[in-house]
Specification:
Shape: globular
Structural class: mainly alpha
Number of helices: 23
Number of strands: 7
Distance between the termini: 35 Å
Strand content: under 5%
Helix content: 55-70%
Length: 581
């Protein structure tokens, strides 16, 4: 019995690295080496830039990517996850450093690691799904604005003695010192943005950031440009392996630093699991969220011992890893070894790297992570979603990220209560209700073999949308036409709407047609404000199951005529129920 329990616990936290050897080939290893080397080059300028933007040294960012990336690759729950420093932490890290120094940051990172390990061991990491999409978008927009605002000084080459942590104070200080702008630094920054943005259009295999960094460093050396570099500000990057130094534990700072540690843990959990989901959709794999959170926690507990900063799964680097052909966690290991090799061999050259180049790279990163296209979608939703987004965004930019996280979670709870309260109705049953209900009933319908019916019961809000993803993870079990029956879906929010839009895209990419039918008043009203109708097609939004089956027959007949014969379907596919209440 004990042996069974221990095996069950092992599978609960089983890293993907342990599944490697069952079918791993020499060809897979070659693909992993190429992918890991590629993403290692991509991570080099980003790691240094995130270290500088966080108020610490560039080598702190590099050591985080090397050690944290290696730990997550070996013990994480995703095959292709790449971990390292990311923009999500820049603001909170800089704030902690300014208030409590580097020693306070190291304690915060280790505390966040313990929290993440606890979330993974207990399965409470799933609680991050209870953060609605307007809150996540508000965080993301605000963090992007803050990252961009911290890089204006180095992008313009401005010299100013103070470096305020508050947004308005920072912008006011930049305005007062505009007379110190250096044209050479601006030229390097503009050239960097052009290379980073335009080079992927020519070749996606060549990392634009590393090319810009190499070109900028070469320009500084050859033309002796009077611009600020890593060497002039930090004295360069030490060559050799990082020194292991356990930070002094200060119990008197625990309560003062706990809110910051909670913020780092929550942001780390959100970004790492979101990155793992993105990787799953690209590779067809399925990550182990508990193992991933434990690995992220161990990484955050260990990296402070080498002077590192918070670490999490990096969506852009993970996507680059997949596009480069990664097959397994070996690519993540190679990524870390590539960075280590660069530090050991080329650290002396880093002192010539211009800070304007790294600032320009982060400006592009800030633009890419901002999810600006989501703002018009949020603004088309109802007042509650718009209020939640605007409050989270404003607090992130103008107040404090810790406050924004706390208020965002409180707003999420209130929003959930508000949505659920709207699902309760009391009314008499009339003959008209009985007559209208027949068109929605499934019991007397004949479902043809080319149709699968999905149905959602209850409110489809944040915290329940993952059930749709789990049910539709294997598209091969569905017929060519899928009817999504919304008759018993009592309410929907922005997160649910986004989940339906994502399902529509996945259905379309798999060659299937999705029809929606039977939406009640509140869901129907919200569907009109999103992009779902444009994605599905207005003709594929039907009032009831009867109409949806008729539309499915039309689509099937049209496809049969275009193909010259009806497709051969082996058997009827039963309808499936997704219980979301």
């Amino acid at each position: 019995m004990r042996r069974f329990a221990s095996l069950r616990a092992m599978s609960y936290l089983r890293p993907k690295f342990m599944d490697l050897w069952s079918s791993y080939s020499r060809r897979d290893f070659g693909a992993d080496v190429i992918a890991g080397f590629t993403v290692g080059l991509v991570a080099l300028p980003l790691a240094m830039a995130f270290g500088i933007a966080s108020g610490v040294t560039p080598q702190a960012g590099l050591y985080t990517a090397i050690v944290g990336g290696l730990i997550v690759a070996l013990f994480g729950g995703s095959r292709t996850q790449i971990a390292g420093p990311t923009g999500a932490f820049v603001v909170i890290v800089a704030s902690v450093v300014s208030r409590h120094g580097v020693s306070g940051l190291l304690i915060v990172t280790m505390m966040a690691g313990v929290i993440l390990i606890f979330l993974g061991l207990t399965g409470l990491g799933n609680a991050v799904k209870f953060i609605p999409r307007p809150v996540v978008i508000g965080f993301t927009n605000g963090i992007a604005v803050l990252i961009a605002s911290t890089q204006i000084k180095d992008f313009l080459g401005i010299t100013m003695p103070e470096n305020p942590s508050e947004f308005f104070a920072r912008m006011e200080a930049i305005w007062r010192h505009l007379d110190t702008v250096k044209p050479q630094t601006i030229a390097i920054g503009v050239a960097t943005v052009a290379v980073v943005v335009l080079l992927p259009r020519i070749s996606k295999r060549i990392p634009g950031a590393i090319v810009a960094l190499a070109a900028g460093t070469l320009a500084v050396v050859l033309f002796k440009l009077p611009v600020e570099t890593i060497g002039s500000r930090f004295g360069g990057i030490p060559a050799g392996l990082p020194h292991i130094d356990v930070p002094a534990f200060r119990p008197d700072l625990i309560l003062a630093l706990l809110p910051s540690a909670m913020t780092v843990a929550i942001l780390g959990a959100i970004e790492s699991l979101l990155s793992a989901v993105v990787a799953d959709s690209a590779t067809g794999d399925r990550h182990n969220s508990n193992a991933e959170l434990v690995a992220q926690g161990v990484a955050n507990f260990v990296v402070p011992m080498v002077g590192g900063i918070p670490v999490t799964g990096a969506i852009a680097r993970t996507a680059t890893n997949i596009r480069a052909g990664a097959k397994s966690p070996i690519a993540g290991v190679v990524h870390s070894l590539t960075l280590l090799g660069i530090v050991l061999a080329f650290a002396p050259l880093a002192r010539f790297a211009p800070l304007g180049t790294l600032a320009a790279v982060l400006l592009v990163v800030a633009y890419n992570i901002g999810e600006w296209r989501e703002i018009p979608k949020i603004l088309r939703l109802d007042k509650t979603d718009k209020a939640v987004w605007s409050a989270t965004f404003a607090l992130t930019v103008f107040a404090d990220l810790t406050v924004a996280v706390g208020v965002g979670m409180a707003l999420a709870a209130l929003l959930y209560i508000h949505r659920v309260s709207q699902t309760t109705t009391v009314s008499l049953v009339t003959p008209e209700d009985l007559r209208d209900g027949r068109a929605h009933a499934l019991q007397d319908k004949t479902i043809p073999p080319y149709v699968t019916i999905l149905r959602i019961h209850g409110p489809f809000l944040f915290g329940t949308t993952d059930k749709l993803l789990q049910e539709t993870s294997d598209m091969t079990q569905y017929a060519p036409i899928v009817i999504l029956r919304l008759r018993n879906m009592t309410a929907i929010d922005a997160t649910g709407l986004y989940a339906l839009e994502a399902l529509s895209d996945r259905m379309k990419s798999s060659g299937r047609t999705m029809l929606l039918c039977g939406a009640r008043f509140q869901p129907a009203r919200l569907l009109q404000r999103g992009d779902l109708i444009d994605r599905v097609g207005e003709k594929n939004i039907l009032p009831n199951v009867d109409a949806a089956l008729q539309r499915a027959a039309e689509i099937h007949e049209s496809a049969a005529m275009s193909d010259g014969a009806a497709p051969q379907l082996s058997a009827s596919t039963p309808s499936r129920a997704i219980i979301s209440a």
